Amino acid sequence: MLMQNLNGKNVLLGVCGSIAAYKSAELIRLLQEQGARVRVVMTASAQEFITPLTLQTLSKHPVRTDLMDPVAEATMGHIELARWADLVLVAPATQEFMAKLVHGRAADLLSAICSVADVPMMLAPAMNHSMWMNAATQENRQQLIKRGIYFVGPDVGEQACGEHGPGRLVDLESLVAAAAKLYENDLLAGISVIVSAGPTREAIDPVRYLSNRSSGKMAYAIAEAAQEAGAKVTLVSGPVALPTPSKVERIDVISAEQMLGAITSLLAQSDIFVSAAAVADYRPVKFVNQKIKKDKRTQSLELERTPDILKTVREQSEDLFIVGFAAETENLEIYAKQKLASKGMNMIAANLVGEQQGFEQDDNALELFWPKNKDQDNMIIQHKSLEMRPKPKLARQLIAFIAERYYAKTTS
Ligand SMILES: Cc1cc2nc3c(=O)[nH]c(=O)nc-3n(C[C@H](O)[C@H](O)[C@H](O)COP(=O)(O)O)c2cc1C
Predict the structure, then answer these.
(1) In 10 A of CB 213, how many CB atoms?
(2) CATH 3.40.50.1950 placement within the chain
(3) Beta-strand relationship, 272-275 and 202-205
């Protein structure tokens, strides 16, 4: 069954030295069927039970086994691998691995990755029932749960050693379902969210247009994160080459004028507007009906301002919670604060753009600003930084913060 929540997620699968390690081969396939990208890290003991070659073939990526591996470190280092992951899933997790995790050990690759990963971590233990019921193992489990690590299983039943009890690796479908459930939350349950995305194109003649380098990746990640948080999401999207996130409604537009029209038609039934599109500021005053010929040595184009979407939306909807974006190449904070105050936004997410930053990139960082008071002339502005990370992770953090601010505002 397709559960969607793992679709497009990066799953780092840790495999430990349990007899159940052979099941990780099937687990990789099940995760991939859900649309997840899987990379595998095996402990030394795990390789006694199943070969890296098998898991490499199934995951379609080299399996990482050593921390001190100069070749692997030169490509995707262990810290990078931890940053790549949206989820660290250790299945099967051994008694030994749980003990190491409790103590924050970092002498082997999997432990080292777990010690730096700042994403959800889930363990699926598998061991003999006496190992599982051992007092130290149970205390370790409690410790790890306290630290926010998720557990799935183990199941009770017939064990590989012929004994019976709790310790079997949970059945793989339940394991995948539990992992998918991690990405569901109800932070924005029942809330309607508009997300604007991508660039706009302002036509010059039938074959040419003015546009910008926005890829839409950040906005699409925000739409997906809002949907995962239980919101009803409508993406109003300029032309981008991205698939529509599941359960998100998408309205395609080309120009700033069309984007404004689509957004205003949704205002009556919306609670939050995240304006993440890179709307063209100017458009040609005149659209030339036929292709402009190259018969002149120089050519000029007269431009006029496109409609101000944020300003218009605020005028039409006083109560809407508006989150703007500011993409700047310099003076980020100053411009962001000016924009926040002048457009009546509830929050602004500012990021630097330019060479290797912001547009078209997979990673991003955001500076968030929001007003503490309503006095336009004496506005006290608060600030929070969301550090550089892959856009899907950043989007989930942003949505969690938007939810916090939205409820603070609606209940104040
Ligand atoms: C045949 C065999 C099966 C094992 N099965 C398990 C198991 O299911 N669970 C477990 O916690 N340890 C099991 N062990 C013990 C672990 O392999 C051992 O504690 C090892 O040090 C774990 O290392 P790792 O956590 O780095 O993979 C088994 C050992 C052998 C020889």
Answers:
(1) 12
(2) 10-181
(3) unpaired
Q: How far is the CA of 119 from the centre of ligand 1 (A)?
A: 26
Q: Does ligand 1 come within 6 angstroms of the Cβ of 359?
A: no
Q: Name which residue sits closest to atom 26 of ligand 1, judged by CA.
A: 43
- Burial of 29-65, coded b for 16+ CB within 10 Å and e otherwise, reads ebbbebebbbbbbbbebbbebbebeebbebbeebbbb
Averaging pLDDT over each range in 73-77, 150-154, 323-327, which range is the top one? 150-154
Q: Measure 154 CA to ligand 1 centroid, in angstroms.
A: 15
CATH H-level, domain 10-181: superfamily:
Flavin prenyltransferase-like (3.40.50.1950)
* Average confidence score pLDDT of the chain: 92
Task: Give 299-332 pLDDT, tens digit per residue.
Answer: 999 999 999 999 999 999 999 999 999 887 777 7
- Report whether residue 45 contacts ligand 1, using a CB cutoff of 6 Å: yes
Cis peptide before 92 (omega within 30 of 0): yes
pTM of the model: 0.74
Q: Report the residue count for the chain.
A: 412
Tell me the Ramachandran region of residue 361: left when phi exceeds 0, alpha when psi lies from -120 to 50, beta otherwise: beta
Look at ligand 1, atom 6, and give the residue with the nearest C-alpha: 18
- The best mutation among 22, 41, 45, 67 to test binding of ligand 1, ranked by most ligand atoms within 8 Å of the C-beta, falls on 45
Mutate to test the pocket of ligand 1, among 13, 15, 18, 151 (most ligand atoms within 8 A of CB): 18
- Cα distance between the two ends of the chain: 43
114 given a catalytic annotation: no
Separation of CA 58 and ligand 1 centre (Å): 23
Using the mean position of ligand 1's atoms as its centre, give its distance from the Cα of residue 84 in Å: 28
Return d(Cα 108, Cα 129) in angstroms, integer.
Answer: 26
State the span(s) of the chain assigned CATH 3.40.50.10300: 192-280+300-411
Which listed residue (53, 79, 136, 161) is catalytic?
161
Query: 140 CB under 6 A from ligand 1?
Result: no
Token match 């990640």: residue?
221
- CA distances (Å), origin 75, targets 50, 69, 267: 25, 10, 47
Fold category of 192-280+300-411 in CATH: Rossmann fold (3.40.50)
